[in-house]
Fold this sequence. Notes:
Shape: globular
Order of helices and strands: EHEHEHEHEHEHEH
Strand order of the largest sheet: 3-2-1-4-5-6-7
CATH architecture: 3-Layer(aba) Sandwich
Largest sheet: 7 strands, parallel
Number of strands: 7
Radius of gyration: 18 Å
Distance between the termini: 52 Å
CATH superfamily: NAD(P)-binding Rossmann-like Domain
Helix content: 40-55%
Amino acid sequence: MAGVALITGSDSGIGKATAVALAERGLDIGITWHEDEAGASDTAQEVRAHGRRAEVRRVDLGDAAAGGAAVHQLADALGGITVFVNNAATGHHDAFLELDLDRFRHVLEVDLLGAFAAAQAAARRMVAAGHGGRIVNVTSVHEHVPLRGAAAYCSAKGGLGLLTKVMALELAEHGITVNSIAPGEIATPMTDAEDVDPRGEERPGIPLGRPGDAREIAAAIAYLASPEATYATGASFVIDGGLLLMAAQANQLVTG
C-alpha cells in the first residue's frame, strides 16, 4: 500500500497499534492526541522507524469541529489522505437515573459529533482528490448491544454504527468504502490494561477466555485499508472473542 492514513486518538491502544500497522504497510501517518503527548511522540517514532513520515497534532474533540480542522491540517502537511480511521473516544460509567445531561452531551460530542466532523472532512478531501479512499470507524460491541451504566457511550457508538452505513451508501459512488470495527474488551488504557499480555488474562464470560490485543484490531483495520477489501462497505466487523454469542448461553446458565 501507499498513501496517507490519519488516525485519531493514536497516542495509545488501538490507535497506536493501527498507526504502526499501516506504517509497516507503507503509509505515511497523521497522529492525533488529546492528553498523552508523550504517547503520541512514541507513536511517531515507531512510524518513522518504519521509514514513513509522521505528523502529530493535538485535538480536543470536546469541541467537535476540532476534528475536522485537524484532518485538514494533517492532510495538508502530509499531502493528502487515503485512509481515515475514527478511533478517538471517551466514556463514563453512570447509572441512567443519575446521568448528568452535560456528561451525556460530552460523550456524544467526542464519540459521535467529533467523529462525524472528522469523517466528513476526510471524505470531502477524498472526493475532491478523486481517487476514492477508505474510512474505518472504530465503534464497539456496544454498537450492537447495551451495557449497564453506559447510556451515553452506547448511544454514541450505536449512532456511529448507523452513521457508518449512511456514509457507505452515499460515498460508494465516489469509490470510498466505509466500515466499522466493533471491538469487545481490548487490553488498552480505556480498560486499564495497557501493556498487559491479554493472553495471560482470564475472562470466563468470553468464549475465547481472554481480552483482545490492540494489534488484533489494528490488523483488521489494515485489512479494510488494503487492496483486498475493495468490495467491503457498510459492514460492522465485530471482533470480540465471541462475547456477543453469550446471550443465550448466559440465559441457559441462569435458568439451568
